[in-house]
Amino acid sequence: MGLLVDGRWQDRGYDTESSRGRFERSQSQWRDWITRDGKAGEGRERGFKAEPGRYHLYVSLACPWAHRTLIFRVLKRLEAVISVSVVHHLMLENGWTFLAEDGATGDTLYGLDFLHQIYTKADPGYSGRVTVPVLWDKKEQTIVSNESSEIIRMLNSAFNEWGDATVDFYPQSLRAEIDEVNAEVYSAVNNGVYRAGFATSQAAYEEAFGDLFAELDRLEARLSRQRYLVGDHITEADWRLFTTLVRFDPVYVGHFKCNLKRIADYPNLSNYLRDLYQVPGVAPTVDMRHIKAHYYASHLNINPTGIIPLGPEIDHLAAHDRDRFTKAA
Ligand SMILES: N[C@@H](CCC(=O)N[C@@H](CS)C(=O)NCC(=O)O)C(=O)O
């Protein structure tokens, strides 16, 4: 694990010393927008026009943030419109690499060795973390965005001419509620598992752990009343929660010490997880081998032997009971 400083790669972990053992996620630095007409996003200078074949995603199948973008690409039917490269699941001294083994594709655009070279191709003086997902513009040869929450909004609305315009995961009328749910889920759950797992003080771990399970209890109650997080239609909020839930029992319970309960112990959350998993197109985006191997073998500060546990056994294709809401409606 490392980062770029003035364009030079340095092998360094997260600094938790200055924050009393707390893991604090850095802000993503590339925040431009692809729009239908090519106008720059609000407060931005560079504009990017939606065009088929122009853009590319660099993802890891292990990463929950990158996973969101893959789900949107599939469900918005953008596979032929936006191409993808998959990094290798191991992230060690060189960060994410393009070793083309075990389901990783290599860098299908330039044949580079490391993801950090994509960042320095876009900005030779870049300082910061080298994260997936990256939304890349093949025409301008630059990064449009490395912020998954914004990339999924672009995929949701900018490419409707070529994708499925009937699918809208961020409808105007639900935006305020979606944003509200996202904010809670982000800090306590999506980022919460990392705050627990990467904490280097007992107090920081316990704080994250408390926030996480309090929020899972609230979500369990919410999902006892309605099929999805925001009513009876799947929205962006559901996909953002899904990518954390699907990793929870196999990885976060053990590796990140989020072990008060498993998702399997929450009837509504576990049925909801199966419901989302069974949406056509979603299952192939879930690569449990990459997920487990990445976390357990890349974070050697947490798991020094790199041994990847074999369990648990989970059947995401088992029946779920979520139709009960639709039928009652
Ligand atoms: N805010 C970013 C976070 C992305 C992120 O942290 N990705 C992780 C993988 S799960 C990563 O690439 N980490 C490498 C690092 O921090 O050095 C987003 O949502 O896109």
UniProtKB/TrEMBL annotation:
What is the residue range of the signal peptide feature?
none
* Domain called GST C-terminal: residue spans: 160-295
Q: Name one Pfam family in it.
A: GST_N_2
Q: What InterPro entries has UniProt attached to this entry?
A: Glutathione-S-Trfase_C-like (IPR010987), Glutathione-S-Trfase_C_sf (IPR036282), Glutathione_S-Trfase (IPR040079), Glutathione_S-Trfase_N (IPR004045), GST_Omega-like_C (IPR047047), GST_Omega/GSH (IPR016639), Thioredoxin-like_sf (IPR036249)
Q: What top-level branch of life does the organism fall under? A: Bacteria
Protein name in UniProt: Glutathione S-transferase family protein
Q: Which organism is it from?
A: Mesorhizobium retamae
